[in-house]
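> forwarded from #structure-qc
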C-alpha cells in the first residue's frame, strides 16, 4: 500500500507545460550533433551573463579554494551549520536585494528565512499561512509550476484572478472581487493573494497602482499578500521594478505582518542549480516556523560562502545588474523582431526571461482544443518547445510563453527560421491537410541543411 500522495494525480506535472519538456528531452536540439532536434524555449533560464560570473571567479580563486585571508575555511564550512544560515551570506543577500530595488527598501536579516530555492520558499509559506482546503487567489495567466509547488503537498487550492489581454492583463478591483466571490461559492476559505512580480508568464512588472490596489484589497479582507519577486533584477525596460514592500512603506504598511516576499538567485544571477531562495516577512511566527521547516531544504554552506563573497563585491554586482539587463533587453528585442517578421505579435514586456506571444491567428478555431493542436504541431513538427497559454490557466486560447535567455544567438536564429518557415507554409497552403505538411517538411529540411552548411563554414574558418 502506498500513500494517496503517491498514487493520485494531484502533482500538477501532467500539464502540457511539463509534457513539452518530456518531448524535448527525447530529442534535444544540438547545433552540430542534432540540428533537427527540438529547441528548448520552455525553460525560463538566464544563460546570457555567465561570462561575468566566471570572470569574477577567475579573479578570486581563493573563494572556490575555500580560503579566507589565505587560511582554509574548509573545516568551518564542512561542520554542522544551523538552519539560520551564514550571517555574511544573509547580509550580502540583503544588500543585493536593496540594490535591485534602488535602495528604496531596507531588509532586516532577522526577518529572512533561507530556503533551497523559491519553490521551497513558496511551499513553506503555504504551509505557514494556510490549512489544507484553504485557498490563495493568483492572477492568471500564472506559472504552471504553482499547481505543483503550492498545492501538491500542502492541500491548498488556487483560485485564478481572471486577467485579460484587452487591458494588457492588468489586475483590476473587479477581477479581485470576482475571484474572492467564486472562492466563497466553492466554500473555500481565502487566506491570501499571491503574485509574481514581474509576471511569469507575461514578462511584465506589476505597476504601483496595481500593488496599491492589491494591498488595499488584502488589508480590507484581512488576508495575506505574497509577492514572488524572483525576476526583480531582470527588469530591463520601463516601467522600473517596484516591490510590494516599497508601496507598503508609502502606505504606512511596511510593518504589516500579512505581507511576505519570496526571492531567489535562480533568475537574476542565473543560478537555479545552486538552489538559493528566501522568505522575507515581518511576521515573527511565520519566520520562526519557516526557519524550522527550512531544515528540510537547506542551502549548503559552501554555496553560501561562495555567494557571500560574490554579492559583497559592490563593484561587481553593480556592473552585473547593468550588463545583464542590457543583454536581456537586446535578446528580447531580437525575439520580438524575429516574430514580427513572421507576422506574429507579443504582449509588450519589460522584464523576465520570456515573452507572451500571440498566435491566435494561427488557430483553426477559437478553442483550447485548437490551441493544443497548434502546440503539438509546433513541438513535434516545427521542433520548438513553447508553453501553451492553457498550461498557464489563460482564459483566452492562442497565447504562448516563449523563453529567450536560455540559448545562444545562433540557436535563437534557428528557432526564428523555423517559425518563419512554419508560418509561410501555413499561409501558402491555405489548408490544414497533407499539402501543408509536405510543404513544411520540405521547408524544414531546407532550413536544417542551411544551418549545417553555415556551421560547417564557421568551423572551417576557425580551423584555418
Amino acid at each position: 500500500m502506498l500513500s494517496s500522495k503517491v498514487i493520485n494525480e494531484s502533482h500538477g506535472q501532467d500539464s502540457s507545460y511539463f509534457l513539452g519538456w518530456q518531448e524535448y528531452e527525447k530529442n534535444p536540439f544540438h547545433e552540430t550533433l542534432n540540428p533537427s532536434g527540438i529547441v528548448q524555449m520552455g525553460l525560463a533560464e538566464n544563460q546570457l551573463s555567465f561570462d561575468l560570473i566566471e570572470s569574477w571567479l577567475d579573479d578570486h580563486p581563493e573563494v572556490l579554494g575555500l580560503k579566507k585571508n589565505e587560511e582554509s575555511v574548509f573545516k568551518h564550512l564542512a561542520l554542522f551549520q544551523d538552519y539560520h544560515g551564514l550571517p555574511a551570506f544573509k547580509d550580502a543577500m540583503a544588500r543585493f536585494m536593496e540594490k535591485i530595488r534602488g535602495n528604496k527598501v531596507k531588509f532586516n536579516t532577522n526577518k529572512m528565512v533561507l530556503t533551497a530555492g523559491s519553490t521551497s520558499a513558496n511551499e513553506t509559506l503555504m504551509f505557514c499561512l494556510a490549512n489544507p482546503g484553504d485557498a490563495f487567489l493568483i492572477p492568471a495567466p500564472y506559472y504552471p509550476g504553482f499547481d505543483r509547488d503550492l498545492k501538491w503537498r500542502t492541500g491548498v487550492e488556487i483560485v485564478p484572478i481572471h486577467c485579460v489581454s484587452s487591458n494588457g492583463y492588468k489586475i483590476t478591483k473587479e477581477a479581485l472581487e470576482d475571484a474572492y466571490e467564486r472562492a466563497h461559492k466553492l466554500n473555500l476559505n481565502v487566506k491570501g493573494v499571491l503574485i509574481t512580480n514581474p509576471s511569469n508568464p507575461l514578462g511584465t512588472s506589476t505597476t504601483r497602482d496595481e500593488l496599491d490596489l492589491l494591498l488595499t484589497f488584502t488589508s480590507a479582507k484581512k488576508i495575506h499578500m505574497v509577492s514572488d519577486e524572483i525576476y526583480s533584477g531582470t527588469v530591463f525596460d520601463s516601467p522600473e521594478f517596484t516591490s510590494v514592500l516599497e508601496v507598503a512603506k508609502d502606505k504606512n504598511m511596511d510593518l504589516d505582518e500579512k505581507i511576505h516576499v519570496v526571492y531567489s538567485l535562480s533568475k537574476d544571477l542565473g543560478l537555479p542549480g545552486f538552489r538559493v531562495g528566501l522568505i522575507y516577512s515581518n511576521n515573527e511566527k511565520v519566520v520562526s516556523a519557516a526557519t524550522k521547516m527550512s531544515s528540510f531544504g537547506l542551502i549548503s554552506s559552501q554555496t553560501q560562502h561562495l555567494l557571500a563573497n560574490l554579492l559583497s563585491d559592490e563593484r561587481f554586482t553593480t556592473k552585473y545588474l547593468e550588463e545583464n539587463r542590457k543583454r536581456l533587453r537586446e535578446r528580447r528585442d531580437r525575439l520580438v523582431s524575429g516574430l514580427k517578421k513572421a507576422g506574429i505579435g507579443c504582449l509588450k514586456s519589460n522584464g523576465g526571461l520570456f515573452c507572451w506571444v500571440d498566435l491566435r491567428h494561427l488557430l483553426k478555431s477559437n478553442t483550447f482544443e485548437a490551441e493544443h493542436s497548434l502546440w503539438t504541431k509546433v513541438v513535434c513538427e516545427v521542433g520548438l518547445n513553447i508553453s501553451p497559454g492553457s498550461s498557464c490557466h489563460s482564459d483566452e486560447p492562442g497565447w504562448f510563453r516563449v523563453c529567450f535567455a536560455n540559448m545562444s544567438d545562433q540557436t535563437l536564429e534557428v528557432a526564428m527560421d523555423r517559425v518563419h518557415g512554419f508560418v509561410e507554409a501555413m499561409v501558402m497552403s491555405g489548408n490544414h491537410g497533407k499539402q501543408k505538411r509536405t510543404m513544411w517538411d520540405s521547408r524544414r529540411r531546407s532550413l536544417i541543411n542551411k544551418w549545417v552548411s553555415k556551421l560547417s563554414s564557421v568551423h572551417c574558418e576557425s580551423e584555418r
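QC bot note: DSSP finds 17 helices and 15 strands in the chain. Residues 434-463 form the longest helix (30 residues).
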